[in-house]
What does this fold into?
Amino acid sequence: MHYDLIIIGTGLSGLMAAKTAVDAGKKVLLVGKGMGALALFSNTIDVLGTLPARTKLAEGLSRWVQDHPEHPYGKVGVEHILGALISFSSLFTRPYAFVSQGDQNSDILTATGTFRSTYLVPNTMLSGTSLRQGEILFVGFKGFKDFYANYLAHPLNCRAITLSLSGSSHGELTATAIARLLEKDSIRKRIGEEVKKQLRGEVRVGFPALLGLNDPWAIKGDLENLIGTEVFEIPTLPPSIPGKRIFSTFRDWLLRKGVSFLMGYPVSKVVLKGKRCEGIHVSHPPVANVHTADRFILATGRFLGGGLVADEMRIHEPLFSLPVSQPSSRLDWFGRSFFDDHPIHYAGVVTDSSLRPVDERGERILENVWIAGSMLSHHHLIKEKSREGIEISTGYMAAKEALKT
It folds into this structure.
């Protein structure tokens, strides 16, 4: 089958590119092995967490773009970054919405007991951006080893309790299993009643961000009615239930709009003719299907997603064999200490201003292929706290540019 656009990669950048293309009325195929980094890291939407306090996002981004023209944001531009964030947020209308405070970053409590700066926060977590010592009761669950309520409570001079979901203290529970259990009325009622008994004047109750996969706002409201006080979610360690909610929301919306999904099988080969890509092979053993399109977006992520692969000597882009900007020697990939600014973080595919890949001389390699997401070069998304912002804005921009041709 032939498509207007084939997107390789089903992480946040690929999903955002698909939404942008569908909004323009295009026929889209989305191909990927899974949901990318969404299931691991995305609890909130980081855009640029290093901005000074009380800096408006547009103002801070304008300065950043001027100072970092080779950064993905420098190629996307402030106007498109803000447009991409608006487009993303349009999928998350109430009851479950992503919001900012005063159009600037806010500091949110994390599962490690620290605060981190982020831009868009699910409204189920909003109370976690304005905490006062002694006013919160933190709730953990027996058998869940990725959230320690006491660890959070101590530095805030608060109390913590650990409850059983299954009626037994034996056995481990996963984040997904807890989220599904909390969707059951009987378990939620028992938890709510037990928390209410444990209150000692606290005005808020903090749970790990596991309040269901499908309707966290309703579960939050139900618990608030049962407990009689405000409830909020706290971002957890990987895996991320909020990230799974983002993926599910995108997937359901895109399917309703007619997007075709091929999930679970990677692209095994691309069909090239000169400077154009004509199709992709997707392997469904023992059969390999060929899908063709006018345009292609590559959004396969970095090392975790397989978009970049490292061997003993070099870093490679495995699908199109695109050149990767990187240190000249593997010896230069890392600094001397753990906390150094390791050069490997800046490795990635170099593009022109329209996000099409270029070679070492700056000449365009492929005419109908665009690059999006974390596999782009010249950024350090961990240090910058910019992961989701880069993925959302470049997915949006790549689709916009592709549809111009």
The chain has a mean pLDDT of 93. The CA atoms of residues 91 and 253 lie 8 Å apart.
